[in-house]
Each structure stands twice: as structure tokens, then as C-alpha cells.
Amino acid sequence: QVQLVESGGGLVQAGGSLRLSCAASGRTFSRYAMGWFRQAPGKEREFVAAISWSGGSTYYADSVKGRFTISRNNGKNTVYLQMNSLKPEDTAVYYCAINQKTYYSGPDLNSFDVYDYWGQGTQVTVSS
Prior knowledge:
Helix content: under 10%
Radius of gyration: 13 Å
Structural class: mainly beta
Order of helices and strands: EEEEEEEEEEE
Shape: globular
Largest sheet: 7 strands, mixed
Distance between the termini: 40 Å
């Protein structure tokens, strides 16, 4: 079973930046696509960004395109979400997830149904 641990959340002013990290257990991390989702209070969980197993394909929600960047370091079993120009509406618990279809690149990586394991989440709060 894979374990995912997110970190890097916190409180930031609007216009600021944060970088989230998600560390995965296991020796075959490099074979699997990863995704970031978020859930604000009273709202459904929504897709934020995803990256293919190789890092060659990335996907973003329209609401974060141009502000957020997803990347991965397979040597460190870690996926990152760099968040710039943060807005109060970005406030949410952010979750990382792993899709365990070997060498998968999408295009449905924006659907939470295709992910097999989830982290516990990290809180991001953006003040106005």
C-alpha cells in the first residue's frame, strides 16, 4: 500500500506563494501519475493539477492555469505544487493522489475516480 504525505501548507496573504510537497512511499513511484485536488468548506473536492509518470504531460484546472505549476522529482519520490499569485478563493485543504496504472499519462487525470491512494491533506489559507 502506498502512503502519501503532504506538507507545505499554511497561511499566506493574497498575492503570495506557497510550495506544497507530497512524499510517496514505495520504490516504483516513477511509474505512476500524480494529482493534486482541493476541497474548500462546504464544497466538493475539485481537481487542481496532474502530472504524468514521466513528467512529460501536465494538466491544470482553468482556475489555476498560469499561477500553479506541478512538477515531480522521481529520485526523491516527491511531487510538488508551486502556487503563485494566490487568491482567497484558493483557500482549501489540498490533497495529493496517486494513479497506479503503470506509465499512465491521462487524459482523464482530472477525475478523482482514477486515483488509488490519497494523502491526508494540508491546509492552505489565503487572507485578503
